[in-house]
């Protein structure tokens, strides 16, 4: 029963006719109640993986169990335990938000008496109660995404797939969605599989991150582990008086390895990571030095991506085959 | 089957609601056939003087045509709605629920039936207002509603099949004029036995649309004509069975879920 909310994937492959291997033998294990961030550029294989895990696309090879059920042999059972908000918030512009929820609830087999209550609950939860009876055609992008999330939650799924849920949203809408996803995992124990091309999203939201590139998982771990794997943060200090540069370098030397900072900056990679920062500040103060600037540069997930693939995530985009079109 | 019934109802309700919220989708299928009826009646009234013409009212003769035109609109509406769902990914959303494929087809066709019955009611009321007397009486009008439901299903299923095969609303709209060709090459304006151009009479005789029109026409101007009713219902049911089978098979290919 401990696999009820988990996702287990071994050697999953998806080939398209006349196309590349969009997913090329990936292994994954997502723990119950975990938020797993699947990070990669456009065309890396994220959406194809989601389509396979949600039973919408049969794998070419490999196995995947979602909620304890095989995605090929037990498609209907998989669908009964998952909710999904796919890449495009596919909504009917002529229906209202409440119409959508009632339709979804009926198709999910929820009783007539419960449908109305559940629709009201979800509309409240995603902040669409006031707009519930307006046609979706007039909704903003953020409202559509929130409705999409509500629709995925109608039947109280144990596992939630979100395919780039915040793409194109403003920061306010994005943050609101992050809060709700975090709450679902924390309070309701929902396992969340989230694809994203936003580094910040994976960093803030995910308990663990898998980085996918060209259909391969190139790195996996907590955001902290992945960043720590490629290096410690460094402090970049510029003295107020140029003549104090040597004294500043001597003051910071005990706290880590000195790096080349050019003729102006004093750069030290902090041996104790961010935990060493207070000591650095005290040392500067004790030496009676005044600073023009002090910056901490921590490795980002982009640095991780760069280290693993030789390319920056920003701009590393390729066209992913259209799964629906290529599946035939 | 019991579990599928609420699903059928929900999908049908959605079809009706979304159509009712698009005035053009409601008004055009009602008004266009009536305009065509008025134009044809004005220009072809003299046809009633032809020896053997079955009625002295061309409006009564031609009132059968809007019913078939309405069914053609059902084809386009059902097809373009489903094609849009495929294009936007809405079908994927539905696929992720416990919806059964048969519920999707049945629900969309039930929606087409509701709209077809509204159209039929409108044409009948307009007919009564302009003085058409329905030869088969009240019971005939009820049969007319039944026939409208059957042809809405049959033509709606053609639309669903085309949507599932092409996945494109534009393709279906592109086929619409082709469907109208069937209408114009039928007995819509002249009884088949009075068509003097041989090739046209031959085409009209092998065109199933002629028999659908003649079924409706018999209830309006003849009364109870078992042959016309049998041919009309039989052909409509055959078209429906073939189209629903084709649509169901195409849906299996389109719904790639495991």
Task: Please explain how this structure is put together.
The complex is a heterodimer of chains A (328) and B (258). Chain A has twelve helices and 14 strands. Chain A is of the alpha/beta class. Chain A folds into two domains: 7-91 and 139-227 and 307-321, P-loop containing nucleotide triphosphate hydrolases (Rossmann fold, 3-Layer(aba) Sandwich); 232-298, YebC, transcriptional regulation domain (Alpha-Beta Plaits, 2-Layer Sandwich). In chain A, α8 crosses α11. The two termini of chain A are 36 Å apart. Chain B is mostly helical and 258 residues long. Chain B has one domain. Chain B is elongated, with a radius of gyration of 19 Å. The chains are: A alpha/beta (328), B mainly alpha (258).
Question: Given the structure, what is the number of helices of chain B?
Answer: 11
Low-confidence spans of chain B: pLDDT under 50, at least 5 residues?
none
Radius of gyration of chain B: 19 Å
The total number of structural domains of chain A is 2
In whole angstroms, the N-to-C terminal distance of chain B is 21 Å
Helix share, percent of chain B: over 70%
Which outline of chain A best applies?
elongated
Helical content band of chain A: 25-40%
| Corresponding CATH architecture of the largest domain in chain A | 3-Layer(aba) Sandwich
> Strand-and-helix sequence of chain A, N→C?
EEEHEEHEHHHEHEHEEHEHEEHEHH
Major β-sheet of chain B, in short? none
Estimate the strand proportion of chain B.
under 5%
Greatest interface: A-B, 39 and 28 residues
pLDDT averaged residue by residue of chain B? 91
The class by helix and strand makeup of chain B works out as mainly alpha
The CATH topology annotation of the largest domain in chain A reads as Rossmann fold
Low-confidence stretches of chain A: 319-328
Give the terminus-to-terminus CA distance of chain A.
36 Å
């Amino acid at each position: 029963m401990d696999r009820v909310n988990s996702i287990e994937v071994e050697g999953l492959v998806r080939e398209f006719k006349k196309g590349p291997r969009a997913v090329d033998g990936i292994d994954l294990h997502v723990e119950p109640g975990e938020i797993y961030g699947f990070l990669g550029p456009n065309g890396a294989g994220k959406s194809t993986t989601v389509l396979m895990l949600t039973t919408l696309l049969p794998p070419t090879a490999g196995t995947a169990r979602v909620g304890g059920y095989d995605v090929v042999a037990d498609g209907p059972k998989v669908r009964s335990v998952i909710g999904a908000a796919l890449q495009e918030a596919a909504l009917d512009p002529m229906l209202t938000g409440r119409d959508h929820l009632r339709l979804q609830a009926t198709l999910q087999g929820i009783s007539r008496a419960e449908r109305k209550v559940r629709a009201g609950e979800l509309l409240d939860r995603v902040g669409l109660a006031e707009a519930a009876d307006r046609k979706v055609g007039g909704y903003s992008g953020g409202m559509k995404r929130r409705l999409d999330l509500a629709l995925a939650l109608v039947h109280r799924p144990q596992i939630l797939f979100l395919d780039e849920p915040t793409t194109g949203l403003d920061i306010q809408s994005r943050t609101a969605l992050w809060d709700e996803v975090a709450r679902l995992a924390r309070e309701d124990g929902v396992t969340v599989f989230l694809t994203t091309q936003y580094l910040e999203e994976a960093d803030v939201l995910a308990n663990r991150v898998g980085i996918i590139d060209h259909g391969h998982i190139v790195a996996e771990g907590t955001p902290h582990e992945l960043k720590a794997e490629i290096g410690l943060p460094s402090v970049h200090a510029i003295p107020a008086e140029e003549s104090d540069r040597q004294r500043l370098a001597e003051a910071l030397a005990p706290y880590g390895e000195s790096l080349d900072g050019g003729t102006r900056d004093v750069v030290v990679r902090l041996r104790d990571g961010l935990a060493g920062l207070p000591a650095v500040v005290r040392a500067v103060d004790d030496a009676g030095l005044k600073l023009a600037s002090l910056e901490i540069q921590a490795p980002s997930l982009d640095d991780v991506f760069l280290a693993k693939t030789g390319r920056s995530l920003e701009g590393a985009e390729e066209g992913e085959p259209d799964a629906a079109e290529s599946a035939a | 089957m019991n579990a599928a019934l609420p699903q059928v109802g929900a999908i049908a309700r959605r079809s009706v609601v979304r159509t009712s919220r698009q005035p053009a989708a409601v008004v055009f299928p009602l008004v266009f056939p009536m305009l065509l009826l008025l134009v044809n009646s004005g220009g072809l009234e003299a046809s009633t003087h032809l020896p053997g013409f079955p009625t002295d009212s061309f409006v009564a003769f031609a009132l059968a045509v809007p019913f078939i035109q309405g069914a053609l609109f059902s084809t386009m509406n059902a097809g373009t709605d489903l094609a849009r769902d495929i294009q936007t990914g809405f079908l994927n959303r539905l696929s992720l629920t416990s919806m059964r494929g048969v519920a999707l087809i049945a629900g969309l066709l039930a929606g087409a039936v509701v709209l077809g019955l509204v159209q039929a009611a409108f044409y009948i009321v307009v007919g009564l207002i302009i003085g058409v007397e329905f030869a088969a009486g009240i019971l005939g009008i009820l049969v007319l509603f039944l026939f409208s439901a059957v042809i809405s299903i049959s033509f709606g299923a053609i639309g669903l099949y085309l949507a599932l095969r092409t996945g494109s609303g534009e393709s279906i709209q592109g086929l619409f004029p082709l469907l109208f060709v069937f209408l114009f090459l039928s007995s819509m304006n002249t009884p088949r036995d009075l068509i003097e151009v041989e090739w046209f009479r031959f085409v009209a005789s092998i065109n199933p649309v002629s028999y659908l029109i003649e079924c409706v026409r018999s209830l309006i101007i003849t009364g109870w004509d078992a042959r016309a009713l049998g041919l009309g219902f039989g052909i409509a049911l055959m078209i429906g069975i073939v189209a629903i089978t084709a649509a169901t098979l195409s849906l299996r290919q389109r719904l790639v879920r495991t």
